[in-house]
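Support request from a user on the community tier.

User writes: "When I paste my structure tokens into the form, the page sometimes reloads and wipes my input. The last time it worked, I copied everything first. Here is what I submitted, just in case something in the input itself triggers the reload:"
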């Protein structure tokens, strides 16, 4: 049996419990309204990140042709069963890597809730490129992002020794490294019915995650090319929704595949 990458295993550990055991994470109410306004009946729509079932439900309610993408097989399976989604609309894909040709340019709308916060600094350019390349010409990419640290980052950091803090936060590359979590008991977030030991293993397995500011993300999007920002909506919970449009090609033009 093929061993899962550490990050995929970390998400499979929490699997269905992520949304059906008392934890109802998802976009802020301010962003739910914007996402719903982007969804269209019959339009091919990709939700990247199977844990955000609320976005998938909104797409189904709008009558969109919903597809769910994730790099962790367990959470993708759980979400697909929870949503009653046919197998051919569940795609095990890591958008930081090479996209299957069948998915390139397929979707009128691609949405992701705080997905870019889970990329490492090294993965961020490739992850943004993969998200862009899922979008059809003239289609929309809508991403929510938390700028700066999460509350849990601060909570964990404050419980560490100075030596542990230097391993946990790498300001030179702008990364939190959850793999540096010590074995001793420290305060951890609570998500529904997920036990403390499972939560510890889940967080540690997430490894390195980028933490950046607005200008850094917008610069990365501008450097990528092929996307025009149409909106940026702030929410009270500290997240922002960035709405991007993939320009339709004029006759004789072609997109740079880089």
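"...and here is what came back when it finally went through:"
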């Amino acid at each position: 049996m093929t061993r899962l990458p550490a990050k995929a295993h970390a998400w499979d550990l929490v699997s269905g419990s992520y949304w059906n055991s008392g934890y109802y994470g998802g976009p802020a109410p301010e962003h739910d309204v914007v996402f719903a306004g982007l969804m269209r009946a019959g339009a091919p729509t990709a939700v990247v990140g199977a844990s955000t079932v609320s976005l998938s439900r909104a797409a189904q309610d709008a009558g969109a042709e919903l597809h769910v993408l994730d790099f962790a097989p367990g959470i993708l399976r759980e979400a697909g069963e929870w949503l009653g989604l046919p197998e051919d609309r569940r795609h095990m894909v890591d958008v930081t890597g090479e996209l299957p040709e069948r998915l390139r340019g397929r979707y009128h709308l691609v949405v992701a809730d705080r997905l870019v916060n889970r990329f490492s600094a090294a993965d961020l350019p490739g992850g943004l490129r993969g998200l862009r390349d899922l979008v059809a010409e003239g289609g929309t990419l809508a991403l929510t992002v938390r700028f700066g640290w999460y509350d849990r980052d601060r909570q964990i950091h404050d419980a560490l020794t100075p030596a542990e803090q230097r391993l946990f936060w790498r300001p030179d590359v702008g990364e939190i490294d959850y793999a540096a979590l010590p074995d001793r008991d420290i305060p951890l977030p609570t998500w529904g019915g997920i036990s403390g030991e499972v939560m510890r293993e889940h967080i540690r397995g997430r490894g390195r995650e980028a933490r950046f500011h607005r200008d850094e993300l917008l610069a990365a999007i501008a450097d990528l090319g092929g996307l025009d920002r149409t909106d940026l909506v702030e929410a009270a919970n500290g997240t922002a929704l960035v709405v991007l449009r993939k320009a339709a090609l004029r006759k004789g033009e072609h997109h740079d595949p880089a």
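Agent notes: The reload is a front-end session timeout and is unrelated to the input. The mean pLDDT is 90. The beta strands are 44-48, 65-70, 90-92, 107-113, 135-146, 169-170, 175-177, 208-210, 227-234, 239-246. Escalated to web team.
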